[in-house]
Specification:
heterodimer, A: T-fold, 9 helices, 13 strands, 28% strand, globular, B: 4 domains, 7-stranded mixed β-sheet, 16% helix
């Protein structure tokens, strides 16, 4: 099946090929041209990725890939590979979003644009523009909202967690990360969600990733299958582990902020506000 | 078909897209659109998009005329959206879908399948003992439910539910989901009851109990049967025993017999006397006469009382469905000997059977519309709940009327026979995917905070190739005003 494109209600563009679903929005006189640019860039994109799939499913830090999306992926996980097991696949959704957004921005005439790749969102804001995103939990309850303004240095929002059939080493319901690019946010959200964990806890059942997804890049590493009852202290302990990881990433300049959710509890690592001095530095 | 499969041990390889996922049994590929179902590559029902937090769109356009179609209006819409997106094979990404909500450019929903809380209630029209109340019901050896309270002439099963779907082992969940899916899609499923029978259940069909197809539902309990047929029997026979696992009736002792001045016969049955002419536990529960384990009815007779009984006494024994009967005449030793039944008595036995309805299995889907499903309708899910309770919103399942339970939430039951065939799908969570529609006035939809900007006209949804089915008989159009409690002049 080839890539397909369709318009959605609300003047959005939907691009889909295999496992990739993009929902794209854009404001500005260049919207139609930007949509066309996105569709052109998207058409061969999955084939490019698949060509390097074995390499991209291998732990980061090895041979450097050649495709533009693959390079975005490798770059996004490179900075994490000393501290974590991670493969470039941890950033694939964000990297695809970044790549398609870049093609749209290059076509010009956009005030705002976003490419939402399954919750990993690449954002472009012209000066003076803002973008609001709501965050909802597993039960669709509103968890909060975030407003991103041009100049904040945030170009990506990504969410990871245990919702759906996803594979995670951790137990977070969801972790949302803000970062300079969607690929960076994607990789970080994955790793922070992995860190929200209670190692060895009897209520957490795990199984080798390969049993669930035969060609998983996570191989035989145990991924979380289900989580039984947790006390509030245990929930807090798991969140604190994740928060510590997020703090380390923020301190290293890898992410701007993060919000971690587990069983109705949350930890928020707010972006450090830029002072006037810093803004003009 | 573009998707061919290449087998590799218990895994299949999907070539629907260049990723060429290997997919294990019961799992979906990276796209969540194709899955390995028993070794076959299947395209998941488009409705599965709902699992991904997708949107359900109401059965809209109250101003449009009902054209007789049960439009599963949400399906083509959801298929078109396809925006429930996931990357499970690539990375741990939850299901997230974008929605435009007033004042917020996008809502990011992290959600797990709908109808994880669901099951079926099965009514099996039979008096045969299929298992004790509370006994575990199994499919393929896995526990998927239990026997619940018997109803008049029927045994009841409660199958599925979250404890079996996701609360037990992986195999239990998978088998439960599979059994529910097949029952809901009107397929036959073989169930075994711990300490009981093996029953093949299929919606709208007679049950098959221990390999024997049930035919009739009893006319009443043994006592009720005596009451119903006493006047027809009295002129032709001296004693009638209606064999029933619940209450076995004895005509001459029964109040009906007393009223007709039928003399005592001295025929005595086993069991525990309840009130005159009514006996509990004449035998063990089973799949023989009247839901007992009786194969030879004489086994429930004690020797006749020699002070009362007489040679030549005519005795009819019959089951509550009239399917089994035997006619005896007492010999000089007061022992019942099989005899040729008289035509009027035979006619009365046939009338018992005639008054029995055909035995069928009915399957009611029961599920709760969870927060994420409701959120697909409105940004404020509790408002949808309230709107349903206030009868401003009508709930249907595949166009069929759904019973909405009182109390909190939106917990519905619907007869799968009223729904279009193959209405149900599944997701590997495991959970069932079922159609559910919320119908309301556009103004009420706006008032409850609905995604008004997403309303498209029905004509935009009905495209060539869409499946068209007739409405379920005797079911009102979901949009009929009688479904709603609109204020006068409102």
């Amino acid at each position: 099946m080839p890539a397909v494109a369709a318009r959605l209600p609300g003047d959005r563009l939907h691009l889909q090929h295999g496992p990739i679903d993009l929902v794209i929005g854009a404001d500005g006189p260049g919207r139609e041209a930007a949509f066309a640019a996105a569709a052109r860039r998207f058409a061969p994109l999955l084939d490019e990725l698949v060509a390097e799939l074995p390499l991209l499913r291998s732990p980061a830090g090895g041979v450097r890939p050649v495709g533009p999306v693959a390079i975005r992926m490798a770059d996004a996980v490179q900075t994490h590979c000393r501290r974590h097991f991670v493969t470039p696949m941890a950033a694939v959704a964000g990297a695809v979003a970044d790549e398609v957004l870049a093609s749209m921005v290059a076509s010009g005439g956009l005030m705002r644009a976003y490419v939402n790749d399954g919750g990993d969102i690449a954002i472009h804001l012209a000066p003076g523009q803002a973008y609001r995103s709501g965050v909802a939990g597993l039960d669709a309850t509103a968890l909060g909202a975030v407003t991103i303004r041009a100049g904040d240095g945030i170009g990506g929002i990504a969410t990871s967690g245990r919702g759906g059939r996803s594979q995670s080493f951790g137990i977070a319901d969801s972790v949302t990360v803000l970062a300079a690019t969607a690929a960076a946010a994607d990789a970080a959200a994955t790793l922070v969600a992995n860190s929200v964990d209670l190692p060895g806890h009897p209520a957490v059942s795990r199984t080798p990733a390969r049993l669930l997804q035969p060609d998983s890049d996570l191989g035989d590493r145990p991924v979380t299958v289900s989580v039984g009852p947790l006390s509030s202290d245990e929930t807090a302990a798991a969140l604190e582990r994740g928060l510590a990881e997020a703090r380390a990433m923020q301190a290293a300049g890898l992410i701007a902020g993060a919000a971690l959710f587990l069983r109705g509890a949350a930890r928020v690592l707010a972006p450090v506000p830029k002072t006037e001095a810093l803004c003009h530095a | 078909m573009t998707e061919r499969t290449e087998r590799m041990a218990d895994k299949i390889r999907c070539d629907a897209c260049p990723v060429l996922c290997y997919i294990a049994e019961g799992r979906a590929g990276a796209c969540d659109r194709y899955a390995n179902h028993g070794g076959a590559l299947v395209r998941l029902d488009p409705l599965t998009v709902i699992e991904a937090g997708g949107e359900t769109v109401p059965f809209l356009a109250t101003e449009e005329e009902w054209d007789g179609d049960i439009l599963r209006a949400n399906r083509p819409f959801i298929t078109a959206v396809g925006a429930g997106t996931t990357y499970p094979d690539y990375k741990p990404a939850p299901f997230i879908v974008s929605q435009e909500v007033e004042g917020v450019d996008m809502v990011t929903v992290v959600t797990e399948g709908i109808f994880s809380y669901c099951g079926v209630k099965v009514k099996i029209d039979t008096d045969r003992h299929i298992g004790d109340e509370r006994a575990i019901v199994r499919a393929e050896g896995e526990p998927i439910g239990h026997v619940m309270t018997s109803e008049y002439g029927s045994k009841m099963l409660s199958l599925g539910g979250v404890e079996h779907l996701t609360g037990g082992t992986k195999a239990e969940g998978r088998v439960t989901c599979d059994a529910l899916l097949r029952l809901c899609n009107r397929e036959a499923v073989e169930l075994t009851v711990d300490g009981g029978a093996t029953v093949v259940v299929q919606a709208g069909q007679a049950p098959v109990i221990n390999g024997v197809q049930e035919k009739l539902m009893r006319v009443g309990c043994g006592s009720a049967a005596i009451g119903m047929f006493a006047t027809q029997w009295a002129p032709h026979v001296d004693e009638v025993i209606v064999v029933d696992d619940h209450i076995t009736g004895v005509l001459s002792e029964h109040q009906a017999g007393r009223m007709l001045d039928i003399p005592h016969t001295g025929i005595r049955v086993t069991g525990r006397k309840s009130t005159p002419g009514r006996y509990f536990q004449v035998a063990h529960p089973g799949t023989g006469w009247g839901g007992t384990d009786v194969e030879d009815p004489l086994t429930i007779l004690k020797p006749a009382d020699p002070k009362v009984a007489w040679p030549g006494l005519r005795l009819l024994m019959v089951s509550t469905t009239g399917e089994q009967w035997a006619y005896y005449i007492l010999d000089e030793n007061l022992v019942p000997k099989p005899a040729e039944i008289t035509p009027p008595l035979l006619a009365s036995v046939e009338r018992v059977a005639e008054n029995c309805e055909p035995s069928v299995c009915s399957v009611l889907f029961m599920g709760g519309a969870g927060g994420s499903l409701r959120a697909g309708v409105t940004e404020n899910p509790v408002k949808l709940t309230r709107s349903v309770k206030e009868a401003l919103t009508h709930v249907s399942c595949g166009g069929a009327r759904a019973y909405v339970w009182p109390g909190g939430g939106i917990t519905v039951m619907a007869d799968v026979m009223d729904m279009p065939t193959n209405s149900f799908g599944y997701v590997p969570t495991p959970a069932l995917v079922a159609p559910i529609e919320f119908t309301m006035r556009r103004s009420d939809y706006a008032a409850l905070g609905g995604h008004v900007d997403r309303v498209v006209s029905a004509s935009d949804v009905v495209k060539p190739g869409i499946r068209r089915v007739g409405p379920a008989p005797r079911h009102p159009d979901p949009r009929h005003a009688g479904n709603f409690d609109w204020p006068k002049g409102g």
